[in-house]
Each structure stands twice: as structure tokens, then as C-alpha cells.
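agent> fetching stored inputs for the adenosine-5'-triphosphate docking request
agent> found them:
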Amino acid sequence: MIEIRELTKRYGPTVAVDDLSFRVEPGYVTGFLGPNGAGKSTTMRAVLGLDTPTSGDALINGRHYAAIDRPLHQVGALLDASAVHGGRTAFDHLYCLARSNGIRKARVRAVLDRVGLAGVAGKRIGGFSLGMKQRLGIAAALLGDPGVFLFDEPGNGLDPEGIRWIRDLMRSLAAEGRTVLVSSHLMSEMELTADHIVVVGRGRLIAEASISELAERFRRDVLVRTPDVAELTRLLRSAGAVVTRQPDGSLAAQGLDAVTIGDIAVRNHIAVHELTPRSDSLEDAYLKLTDDSIEYRAERANP
Ligand SMILES: Nc1ncnc2c1ncn2[C@@H]1O[C@H](COP(=O)(O)OP(=O)(O)OP(=O)(O)O)[C@@H](O)[C@H]1O
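agent> prediction call returned; pasting C-alpha cells
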């Protein structure tokens, strides 16, 4: 488990993380979302002991990173995949890390195989594409078979097949009961990958919810198709709904849920051909949530 407790990090006058608290539970992929400069990387760096908090705590399984003996066995992380020594081979890079944590050569071969780099194990990292470096970073994270993972924008530089691969990997790590925290700017990607999301803006917590709770929170209306438009409109309005007739003849009802609308129709012997609860897309929901916390914004095209 990862626990962020009242974490604050200042860089001079900049407050990168501002009294942030949340927990990342095992068995789920938790998406860590926020616009540029929201404080995601700073939070992850604090968890990994790479940044000292101004105040508060960032804990892995109840302990500070610095207090963990042989940390690769507890936590695997992918932060900046390009920050590797280009002169080393993939194998040597991983073996160096492995040795410092008492991990055997056979495990290095196994993780290279798992990330699809076995064929280039003897090649220098300097010649690797960004996507290959991402895979190498993920191999390093897997080395100690840890229970906790942090991935900072792991899809960066990967092609669509690579993005699907990393998504499947994160989902399978969570299904094995591990804790997975993954940062992203893209709600569309998190919708496919994450079970829960934590949204931050300007270093503060904006929302913490499961993907399904978020869809529910941003429920827009219920689309109703019926051959008896006039009568159902009257009944729904008298039950308190705001009903709008759509150009295609269907109704958009706000203020009543689909179950209540269906029950009203049945009680009054009105046929219903479609009853669909509609939510804002999660992308829209996310943009609404973070609207006030965009650090740099292009002027809108149509003011
Ligand atoms: N070493 C540093 N020195 C000074 N300011 C920093 C430093 N690291 C981060 N910041 C500032 O702290 C804020 C949060 O940055 P951070 O990189 O944590 O955000 P982020 O959510 O990861 O953004 P991105 O999605 O762009 O990576 C930003 O305003 C950033 O400029």
C-alpha cells in the first residue's frame, strides 16, 4: 500500500504539492491524473525518497523508502526512462541493479524476457529507442518481484501495441494483488487501465473516486424512446423531471433515474423502446474537474 499523508513540497516560492493526502490500495490500478505541473512527479519522487517533503509523509507499506532494506523487493518504479547510462548493455544495467539487492542473474534474464528485450540484452542502451528504454525501465521495476509499483507516464514513447502491452501488464500486476499507481495526463487512457483515480491540480487533491463513481457523479440525463411521447413527457414532468424533446423524436429527461422512468411508464402502460442513462464522457468530467488548475493554457479559439 502507498500512503500519502498531508504531504507538502515547496521549491522556493513554488508549492509543488500542497497538503495532499490519499491512499493507494493493493489489488487495483490507481490512476494519478492532473494537468502539467500538478505535482504528480513530485509526489512519486517523495514516495521513492528522491525528494524530501517540506512536511508530511509518503509511505510504502507503512515505512519511508529510506527505511526499507533492499527496496527493489518492496517497490518497483519507472520514473524517467531516459535517465540510464547509455554505455551499458541492457543486461549489465539490470544486473548492476540486481546485485545491489541480492537478486540473481536468472531473474535478470527472466525480466528481460517478460518485457520483450531478451533479443537485445547484449546491446548498448545508448542505441535504444524511447520505447525500448521504457521497457527496460519496466524490467528494472519488476526485478525484485515487488508488491508495490509506481509508473510515471509509462506509455510515453510506446506505439499502440506497446501501450496495450503496458496496460495489460499493469492490470495483471493488480490482479495478482499488487499495488499499482500510474500517472497520466490522459483520462481516456486511464478509463481503460485504472479502477480508481486520484485527480490533483496545483498540488491539491481534486477528486478521488472509482471510475464508475465518477461516471455516476457526472451523469447527465436519461434518453427515452417511446411511441407515446406526449403522455410520457407529461407524466415525467409531473414527477419532477425536466424533459426535452430531441430532434430525432426521443426525450432527454433530467432529474429522474432510468429505473424510476421505467416504473412510471409501466404503471401507465406506455411502451418504452429505449432507456439509456447518459454521462458526460470521463474526458469531459476530468476537464471540468481540472479546469481551474491548468498551469499554462492556450487562448480559447472562440472566446
Ligand atoms: N526541482 C524543482 N525545482 C523547482 N520547481 C520544481 C521542481 N520540480 C518540480 N517543480 C515545480 O513543481 C510543480 C509540480 O511539478 P511536477 O513535475 O511534480 O508536476 P507533474 O504533475 O508531474 O507535471 P507533468 O505532468 O508536467 O510532469 C511545477 O510547478 C514544477 O515547475
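agent> quick read of the result: The chain has two domains: 2-211, 219-279.
agent> awaiting further instructions
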